[in-house]
From TrEMBL:
Extent of the signal sequence: 1-21
Source organism: Quercus lobata
GO BP terms in the entry: lipid metabolic process
Any one Pfam family match given in the protein's UniProt record, by short name: PI-PLC_cat
Protein encoded by which gene: LOC115976260
Molecular-function GO terms, alphabetical: phosphoric diester hydrolase activity
UniProt keyword list: Signal
SUPFAM superfamilies referenced in this protein's UniProt entry, alphabetically: PLC-like phosphodiesterases
Protein name: PI-PLC X domain-containing protein At5g67130-like
Length: 354
């Protein structure tokens, strides 16, 4: 190639990249970017090497279905983004003085998760150091090396969010190992969350619709808590999850395309005496480098599979790891699809606006 031709080429490619470049908050979904600030609101600059080269703007927030449409339908007519092991956050300092040796499942703190539209948190609660702690542990026991933080810290973040956002509802799903009598009641009380408690007696037990979200908001009953310990319904008035919800297998067993088996504790997915449906979609070992692929098209495919398995019911909750990682729309698009299907039979909630 002669010099002239090279110059033309270089000039052309410079022009091309200048023409293509966006910055200062005007880059759209999947546009190349170099920092979060380049991307439009609701997007951030992210690299998913499995799906595209370089960094591009991908979604970082949900569409608020209540604000886009309205909140006048029963709670079970909406879908909510759920973070699996919401408390197992990368970079969380040790609170025991002993370095932690365990996996993490999320990167944002609880406040950021809630601000980005997460509305359901999966937390593992343990008796530890005379208190309730959140641990990523085994054998039902928390250790210094598996302890994340005292539950009260996380619950106070939820309290702050509910207090600052008086029309939002948060669901907490506990894998519960707390044996201390009224241990959970105490920590929820100490965190100031009892004032938002949705009472057990208003939860439908035979597949009926839930109360209207607008009524839940008007009554300020905006915190739903489910435990995995059956006896706590009787002893503490805390809902036993499996009386109200069906759930598919979590971990690797829930990631086989075309299959949506119930997890052991759950009734079969098509049991319509439970009005809420939760879909788990994350591998047993949380590798964040591949989470962007899991949280993309494969997730939406699984939602369709689980719709069939649940007797033609769309999921109300979708639980993922590293919720903001995707190749574009990710878990946020999955939620738009679910809310669209639930609210108007469309594959995106934006299509419900007329
Ligand atoms: C959560 O993270 C944000 C951003 O780093 C930070 O400003 C905020 O203080 C954190 N909140 C808590 C409760 O850790
Ligand atoms: C599905 O539920 C049944 C009981 O209803 C249980 O015996 C079975 O183990 C569950 N299936 C799976 C795959 O966990
Ligand atoms: C609320 O939104 C749903 C879904 O789009 C719609 O069917 C319903 O009519 C709306 N209700 C009100 C009161 O606007």
């Amino acid at each position: 190639m002669d010099l002239r031709a090279s110059l033309v080429l270089i000039t052309a490619s410079l022009l091309f990249s200048v023409a293509k470049a966006c910055s200062n908050g005007d880059c759209k979904l999947l546009d190349p970017c170099s920092s979060d600030g380049d991307c439009q609101a609701g997007l951030y600059c992210f690299s998913c090497p499995l799906e595209f080269s370089g960094r591009r703007c991908v979604r970082s927030t949900t569409t608020n279905q209540f604000k886009l449409l309205n909140n006048t339908l029963p709670f079970n007519k909406y879908a909510f983004l759920t973070t699996h092991n919401a408390y197992a956050i990368e970079g969380e300092p040790s609170h025991t003085g002993v370095p932690r040796i365990t996996f993490t499942n999320q990167e944002d703190n609880i406040t950021q998760q809630l601000n980005n539209g997460v509305r359901s948190l999966m937390l593992d609660t343990y008796d530890f150091q005379g208190d309730v702690w959140l641990c990523h542990s085994y054998g039902g026991k928390c250790y210094d090396v598996t302890a994340f933080e005292p539950a009260i810290d996380t619950l106070k973040e939820i309290e702050a969010f509910l207090s600052a956002n008086p029309t939002e509802i948060v669901t907490v799903i506990l894998e519960d190992y707390v044996q201390a009598p009224k241990g959970l009641t105490k920590v929820f009380t100490d965190a100031g969350l009892i004032k938002y408690w949705f009472p057990l007696k208003n939860m439908p037990k035979n597949g009926q619709d839930w109360p209207l979200v607008s009524d839940m908001v008007a009554n300020n009953q905006r915190l739903l808590v489910f435990t995995s310990i059956m006896s706590k319904e009787e002893s503490e008035g805390i809902a036993y999850q499996w009386n109200y919800m069906v759930e598919n297998q979590y971990g690797d067993g829930g990631m086989h395309a075309g299959n949506c088996p119930n997890r052991t504790e759950s009734s079969p997915l098509d049991d319509r005496t439970k009005s809420l449906v939760l879909v788990n979609y994350f591998p047993t070992i949380p590798f964040k480098q591949i989470a962007c692929e899991h949280n993309s098209a494969n997730l939406i495919n699984m939602l369709h599979t689980c719709f069939g398995a649940a007797g033609n019911r769309w999921a109300n909750f979708v639980a993922v790891n590293f919720y903001k990682r995707s190749d574009g729309g990710g878990a946020f698009q999955a939620l738009d699809t679910l809310n669209g299907e639930l609210l108007c039979g469309c594959d995106d909630v934006h299509a419900c606006v007329n």
